[in-house]
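Predict the 3D structure for this chain.
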Amino acid sequence: MLFSLWNSHFGARRGRGPVKAICILVVCTWCIYQLHRDSQLGLAEDDSLNQQWSWSSAWPQWLKSEDEHRQEPFVHEGEVQARVSGRVVVTGGGGNIGKALLRRLLAAQVPVTSIDVVFVESELEAIRQDIPESQSLLRVVRGDIRNQTALDSAFTPDVVGVINLAAVSRVMWCLENEPDCHDVNVRGVDLVLKAMERFGRSGTSGRSSGDPWLIQASSREVYGSARMFPVHESSPREAANVYGISKAKAEEVIERRVRRLRWSLRGSKLHAIALRLSNVYGGEFDHHERLVPGMMTRAIAHRPIQIVGGKQDLDFVHIDDAINAFVLAANRLEHKRASGSGGKLGKLAFRNPSKLEAYNVAAGESVPVTELLRRILSITQSASPVQTIPGDDRFPDNYIASTIKAARELGFHAQIGVEEGLHRLATAYMGQTMGYLERKIEDACANPPRFGVSDLLRLDGCNGSVVTYGPDHTGYLSSGDSQEGNFWWHFDDMNIEPQVWTFEVTDHSDEEVRVRLFQSGQHYEVRHDGQSNGEGETHFLARMDDATGHVRMETESGRQLVGAGEDDNGQLFRLTPYCCPNKQAPWPFMSEDPLASAMFDSRDTVRGDLSGSRRNTLCARLDTASTVAREKLDRQASLPKPIKLARVPLPTGSATEWRHRDLPACANDCDHPTVCLDTGSCMCVESACPVRSRFPFASLARLSTLSHPAKLAEKLDLLHPDVLRLSVGRSNWLANVVRPQAARYLARAPKFMPINLTRLPDDIQRLRDDDAERFDKLRTNGNGCFSADSTLERGVKNMSRPVTDDGLVFLPQYAWAEQDTFVPGYHSLPEWLDNALEHHLPPDFDLSRLVSPFTHDFGICPFWVRSVFEARRMASPNPAIERGTAWSVMGDLNVNCYRPDQDIVVPPRTCLQDSLREEFGDIAKVRPIRQRTNLATFKGSPWGQGATIRQRVTCPRPYAKLQHTRLEGGAAMKSYWNTYPSGKDYLATLNDTVFCPLPAGITGWSTRVIDVIYAGCIPVLIGDQTHHPFWDTLDWSRFSVQVGEDQLDRLEEILLGYSWTELHQLQTNMMLVRDAFLYPSEGDMGQHFRARGPLFFAMHGTALVQQTMFPT
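Done. Predicted structure below.
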């Protein structure tokens, strides 16, 4: 054809003809070569079938590029080193893959600029410490790639390439906010390309080294639910979810740019590679919501592990292999950029044209998720239950990738098998735990407190208790006339709270102080024979034991305190302050409360101990936990190579058969990598610690709002009278307030499990039917309103159906009836169950499917006592519910009357429920948090296990002069303790107060919790000894704050550390789920089904328990 063109067009014009002919020949050759390149975009050689049609097979060797001459794969072994001659921009560098990639590039002395919305400063500092050269090589830009100013600032004249990791990188996150997913993943790529074009043209910004290349982090999700395996790069891109669609469209954006530049006459070009990542795992800083890190971290803490469907069979690639792929891709592109040429025709060189290449990054083999889980349970020696919820077709279940093309052209081959990868990850996580424990021990335990005379002097003016040894219990000094004086020692700590004394302390000598104890208008005195009240000695000389803080006291005349305990060196006392009005708390006395140690640090101690120390208990636990972690690390290190992990059986037992069931609850530490302080002899439980989400746009989940620009935040006027209602309307309860595992289940809007309301014995059933009011009426007098049991029963009755093999059975139980008459119920429950089993239930009925309500006192334990020690001695859960699930108000962890992960904590029924609906049923009547005038409030009697805590909470503290608080104007606000503002009642005060502390009383639960939440006051949880309503489902950290018992001396300082914006979000979240805490009004049980109320959460929480298997 070209010869004919020569003769017909140029034969008669011999002068310029040859030149034009050569030009046409070159142009035609170039066009055909570009068509060949186009045919390769997104395609892969299917060598496994040996049927790939390729232009290159028939193309002249002298026109092939240098890369196309290589036919045999050159596979790199070990860690691949980067060979890049300039700076690389890494978008999304603060993420899991990003930080690992930064380390690899910096270790190879490659300058890097990283741009991301969020960087964890401690992780950046770790990079700087491990790679000292990074101080000069690494630039960090905090910003969004959709912010042109931030993005442009990342590009400098020495930039040679871009690795785009910035993305909404999880399927679930994309499903929750599709517009934002598309905006980041698709438009964001286009913006990166435009920035590259602006800064990559030859001659601009001082550049002379050619156009920058691009590596796009794509995903196996672009293939969707593939029909043939292994999946090749040429397989159809039929994404099954919005995340996969966004990644496929991102590749299309790059393909369009490549085609445009190929035909452009401006000389610019783009070399790009899309790496279609399989399931990447192994990064110790990965999102804990992802499959493998989620399983691993929960296995380490022995917490329930959730799998969706359980049929997944996926290709998992270790992060180190994935980083190898990125580096190999960068090296390939850098070679192309540096060479600047492709094929040659004689001495005439062609520029290497623009091109997008796609490669699968995978292991090339799949692992069933159940097998993965069995290996994780093995390497962690975990006692985790396993919860299996229905599958989700938006998440493709099967995937195996072909890596033939990646091996041949990049030299990539996955080198780390799944067993080796899991071993590395478990070791990394346990290393994090070990490092944290070592630092914590150093900070908290290395320097024990020493006590001195100056510490005693600081007790002057404080209020607290006086404690001594007793024959069986610690004794507390109490007022009351006796033969020896106006006092007596109370050694029975069952039902009387420690009395409070005021300490008057003055200087006496270098080693002693003078102490007087004052209460109710008189001083404590010791009388001589014949002396009357008021004539005895009231001054005592006190000497301090500097190691223990124990005090030895006697009168100035040398008389001892009759009845007080003693050791070989005399009588011993401890002065424990609860409140030092309007002055700084006297440490270390404030922290060393032996009563608090006995109540809150143990689940089985039945007496106080004068030497009890919360610090010593914590340090002992830290030391034991460190030993446990070290043993696990040593075991992992001792495994022979290559790593072969055992496959332990998946659990099959019920909740009551769990081998951790009878263990006391572990302590939680929000700074601990897995939160739980596992000593090997305790049970890890869910905490109120904020979830450590690394996703910067989590607050916009399930909304249609774009995260950039932040229009919502810009328009938020916290002083607008309708701001709370507007914020609630823009927010989503599932994304904002529900724990991740529960959210995955509830996101598919599951139906209630079938449930049957079984019949009571005939005589009780007749009484129930004929005198319903006796069971149902809301109490408005006496001891409060505790008829939630009958309210739940009536809700169940409205949906009761015949017994099924997969359904629940509800056995009624009534804690309280009107006129102070207990209806037979609790103690009769075993008899009622026997009756149901005999007459109404199948003979093979599984008792783990039994549900019964316990809505008063200590829940499944049949008593009411004021002392936690007595409760521990008496604790004996109702045998009828031993295998079943209790819907119980009792969620205290320090008494064996609540079983985490088996029982569902439900709210009590408040007497004020109708008043709450009337006052605050319309959210517009709930005052927005920024417009409230009181800082904090609490009013309650000091009794039960919470007696001393309530005294600490209500202590006047100086905070008006605190500097650098985040709560603007908060230091000028007033707190109201045991009183209300002038002219306001209880509900009006709640509606005008920012924070409402919830200290325990007899137990940790109270109706005050419901009142506070419905009125929009931020709950302040004191300590971590109580699981509040629907703790298993609702993330309380999203609508409350938590303060430790040992932090109460600076309560206001902690509360003032929040910003109004943060508190507004907490209040908004609280409004999203406040219906969960309020039962239907009498005469309208239909409210059970019109709102997400207590029955809704109780039923779904029970369903999750039923879908959980426990290791026995």
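Residues 755-905 form one domain.
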